[in-house]
């Protein structure tokens, strides 16, 4: 069974631009979560989608948004990029959105903002 | 709110040594607990999990027991290998909320 895939793997953008990252979950998984990983802040939760509905949202500004499609694929968008948005963005999928449901992570998208 | 505290790294061990990485948590509910591992340049891989008190998760020689009385979920391995060198994250998930991660512990195993 194929794992979680994320595209692109690497991205370089300029301050003020916007970016869209894509995530394809494991087949049969309906929940997709996004996390930001930086050396200073560690792993921080962005948002979670289940069956096209946003279920949870972390403490990030409105420049960060996401959506989920009917096939469970998800995208996240960051507008008006800032230098501090440079990070590894990780997507995780799980079959359900309950506590014991295991989340499986993709390889991440490394975003560099210059 | 929920939080996870891990021991500071890096942890440096010789091959075949015994490993313990401490993890304690604070949660308002009754969370599920997880250990993830991250190799350089990769995403996180689920190592093991436990969903209720006294449960023992195990995988690839790693073990962790859900201790509700001490709110702990320490990771152990009897004999580490060079290939175990990575960053290990303890995490919890409380109800329908997102995973809350610890800060990670880097393990370096020397031959």
Describe it.
Chain A has 114 residues and is mostly beta strands. Chain A is built from no helices and eleven strands. Chain A has strands at 5-7, 10-13, 19-24, 31-38, 42-50, 53-57, 64-68, 74-78, 87-94, 104-105, 109-113. In chain A, the strands form two sheets. In chain A, strands 2, 4, 5, 6, 9, 10 and 11 form a seven-stranded mixed beta sheet that branches. In chain A, a hairpin with a 5-residue loop joins strand 7 and strand 8. The termini of chain A are far apart. In chain B, the strands form three sheets. In chain B, strands 2, 5, 6, 10, 11 and 12 form a six-stranded mixed beta sheet that branches. In chain B, strands 3-9-8-7 form a four-stranded antiparallel beta sheet, with no helix packed on it. The model of chain B has no long low-confidence stretch (mean pLDDT 94). In chain B, strand 7 and strand 8 form a beta hairpin. Chain B has no helices and twelve strands. The relative contact order of chain B is 0.34. Chain B has 111 residues and is mostly beta strands. The A-B interface holds A 4, 6, 33, 35, 42-43, 45, 48, 55-56, 58, 90, 92, 97-108 and B 31-32, 34, 36, 42-46, 49, 51, 89, 93-104.
Distance between the termini of chain B: 41 Å
Shape of chain B: globular
Radius of gyration of chain B: 13 Å
Task: Flag low-confidence runs of chain B.
Answer: none
* Structure annotation, total helices of chain A: 0
Feature tags:
heterodimer; A: 114 residues; mainly beta; seven-stranded mixed sheet; four-stranded antiparallel sheet; B: 111 residues; six-stranded mixed sheet; globular
Brief summary:
The complex is a heterodimer of chains A (114) and B (111). Chain A is mainly beta and 114 residues long. Chain A is built from no helices and eleven strands.
List the helices and strands and how they pair.
The complex is a heterodimer of chains A (114) and B (111).
Chain A: E1 5-7, E2 10-13, E3 19-24, E4 31-38, E5 42-50, E6 53-57, E7 64-68, E8 74-78, E9 87-94, E10 104-105, E11 109-113
Parallel strand pairs in A: 2-11
Antiparallel strand pairs in A: 1-3, 3-8, 4-5, 4-9, 5-6, 7-8, 9-10, 9-11
Chain B: E1 3-6, E2 11-14, E3 19-21, E4 23-26, E5 32-38, E6 44-50, E7 56-59, E8 62-65, E9 75-77, E10 86-93, E11 99-101, E12 105-110
Parallel strand pairs in B: 2-12
Antiparallel strand pairs in B: 1-4, 3-9, 5-6, 5-10, 7-8, 8-9, 10-11, 10-12
């Amino acid at each position: 069974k194929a794992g979680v895939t994320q595209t692109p793997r690497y991205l370089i953008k300029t301050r003020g631009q916007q970016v869209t990252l894509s995530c394809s979950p494991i087949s049969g998984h309906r929940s997709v979560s996004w996390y930001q990983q930086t050396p200073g802040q560690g792993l921080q939760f962005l948002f979670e989608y289940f069956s096209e509905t946003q279920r949870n949202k972390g403490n990030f500004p409105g420049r960060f948004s996401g959506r989920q499609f009917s096939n469970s694929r998800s995208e996240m968008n960051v507008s008006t990029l800032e230098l501090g948005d440079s990070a590894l963005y990780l997507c995780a999928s799980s079959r359900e959105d309950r506590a014991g449901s295991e989340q499986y992570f993709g390889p991440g998208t490394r975003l560099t903002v210059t | 709110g929920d939080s996870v505290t891990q021991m500071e790294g890096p942890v440096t061990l010789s091959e075949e040594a015994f490993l313990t990485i401490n993890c304690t948590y604070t949660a308002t509910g009754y969370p599920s607990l997880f250990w993830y591992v991250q190799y350089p340049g990769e995403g996180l891989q689920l190592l093991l999990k436990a969903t209720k008190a006294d449960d023992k998760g195990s995988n690839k020689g790693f073990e962790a027991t859900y201790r509700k009385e001490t709110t702990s979920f320490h990771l152990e391995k009897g004999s580490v290998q060079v290939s175990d060198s990575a960053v290990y994250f303890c995490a919890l998930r409380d109800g329908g909320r997102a995973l809350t991660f610890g800060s990670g512990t880097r393990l370096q195993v020397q031959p």
